[in-house]
TrEMBL record:
Biased composition (Low complexity): 289-302
Protein name: AAA family ATPase
Native species: Streptomyces evansiae
Residues covered by the AAA+ ATPase domain: 58-210
Family assignment from sequence similarity: Belongs to the AAA ATPase family.
Keyword Chaperone: no
Chain intervals for the UniProt region annotation (Disordered): 289-312
Protein origin, superkingdom: Bacteria
InterPro entries associated with the record: AAA+_ATPase, ATPase_AAA_core, ATPase_AAA_CS, P-loop_NTPase, Pch2-like
Family matches, as Pfam families: AAA (PF00004)
Amino acid sequence: MNEVLPHGVTGVHALPADHHDGPWDAVLVPSRVKERLLATALLVLRHGARLAGSATAPHGLIVLAGPPGTGKSTLARGLAQAVARELAPRGATTLVEADPHAFPSELLGESQRAVARLFGETLPELAARRPHTLVLFDEVEALAVRRQSASFDTNPVDVHRATDAVLSGLDSLRAARPGTLLVVTTNFPEAVDEAFLSRADLLVRTGLPGGDVVPLIVADSLRELAAQWPGLRALAGDEETHRAVAKRLAGLDGRRIRKAVHAALAQRLAVAREPELLGVRDLLSAAEEAAAESGSRTAGTGPEDTRSARSG
């Protein structure tokens, strides 16, 4: 019988698990970024209880912020599996997936009560199952709304109370279960409450891939296809083709780059019927189509410090 999940919880998983492998390696970021993420998660999950009560106690919060398609969710899920493997000799890890959009309510005070139940009852109960617990929230701006910009059209009093409940809930969860880590993503960090962001032990800003990374994403996507259709191995190893395709995909996010490679399989009926017929022309045609669809998004990659996570 399937487990009935609490309100707002969309999944509960025991890690490490082989079927969760893949995301950590799929996101192409500097090794230093992954090292910081893994080290921060390990510190909280392994030593959080020992540090509790000290001035340097971690809040148990990692924030991944950046535009859609830049690998935040994939990186977060990959981190859960990676840290679970590190901790496996000391016990299993529970991964809890929660939906921030499930908590806002039109009923006065209900958002606050729902958030309070999540942090005060649901998460502590789930965290009691195993030695380590990681909670993943995508689009946390729906939950920890920036109170200064709360719209007066949507009951700002309730927005304030709900955000207050998130902050107090985060603090109480840290006190009750110091070995618990929240990993959250946001497409709009400017919409997240400043007090929430200030509690982050680590904030990683993701951005569009630089010109040196786009060919690597193309190559990695082709290797995934070659794993299914061995006849594509030569194409997956052709660096000149990777660079030519990448040139047309410059300025796109990692998700769109990967989708463009997969879309090449549907450029011709013959290739759709037999993917091993995929050729350079198909890839270039799909890349040009993706670039044309992206329009203004093909301009610039932004500052260097916003290019931490680079594939989708």
